[in-house]
Amino acid sequence: MSSLPIATAKEVFDLVRDDLSAVEREFGRQSKSEVVVIQDIARYLLSGGGKRIRPLLLLLSAKALGFTGESRIRLGAVVEMLHTATLVHDDIIDEAQTRRGKPSANTAWGASKCVLAGDWLYMQSFQTALDERNFKILDLLIGLTQQMVEGELLQMQKLGHLINEEEYFDLIFRKTAMLFKVSMQLGAALAGVDETVEQQLGEYGRNLGLAFQIVDDVLDLTGEEATLGKPAASDLREGKATLAVIHALERGTGAEREAIRTVLADRSFTRVKHSTILDILRGHGSLDYAMDAARAYAEAARQSIADLPQANAEAGRALRALLWVPGYVTDRDR
């Protein structure tokens, strides 16, 4: 384990506050279009808040390697634009009514306009990245986009069906962890470090992304709608089996398995109540099992950068901040 102390939340905020504000301004600049509806949708999505964890990772990755050029702000906007585009498309596919406590963009503007706005954000993010004139960056972004699209298609094929843990981890790597991984690798690409260091940072991002999604999936099952900003147990309503559910299916009685299968097939809690599913999950320790897995991945993220060299004091502060992020990911309530 790294001998560096883990940063406090205040230290992390102080370190990246100005950079994250610059990323938001850059996102606003990059999403300007003569077609007003594109600009309106982009502004609406940006104003919805969000954790900005992906640009945060890119900024900290670059800073931990001693890179402080303006490119990190542009690429921070790129990863947030890519993330936003995936959210737009996900909400259309899932027919989601809300996002972060507000009407989803597709509810406000309709699916057709939002599909095209999401496509535009994808292309604009690549246009911005192209300005860096760095093939490594483009290679990372192209691979990322392919993985995310494949992940969404795989998930659509599996909706309403039972999947095993291997399939679950493959899905969440493609849909979530890959973007965390690439956000870290983009910081390394800007710093021009050797492949070994890039792989270390990529491994951090992968492990952190897996932890992040597992926690998201647990919160979806256990959280309140007011806190989540969307209906509770949305995944089950959409026919998605997540880690705790898979764990309970492997250990439950025949009647318990049938209850879970019924919800996945119905995509509703009409015949089986949400509280019944929660009782089954708690009875088999399935929620604790999933959270233990998330914490293990969070710790693996920390371990992967334990021996990262520090170019200067600022790099040391960024590395300490990266050691803080996994705890934030596993301890959050939304």
From TrEMBL:
GO terms for molecular function: metal ion binding; prenyltransferase activity. The keyword Metal-binding applies. InterPro entries: Isoprenoid_synthase_dom_sf, Polyprenyl_synt, Polyprenyl_synt_CS. The keyword RNA-binding does not apply. Its cofactor is Mg(2+). GO terms for biological process: isoprenoid biosynthetic process. Pfam families: polyprenyl_synt (PF00348). Keywords: Magnesium, Metal-binding, Transferase. SUPFAM superfamilies: Terpenoid synthases. Belongs to the FPP/GGPP synthase family. PANTHER family: GERANYLGERANYL PYROPHOSPHATE SYNTHASE (PTHR12001), SHORT CHAIN ISOPRENYL DIPHOSPHATE SYNTHASE (PTHR12001:SF85). This is Octaprenyl-diphosphate synthase. It comes from Terriglobus roseus.
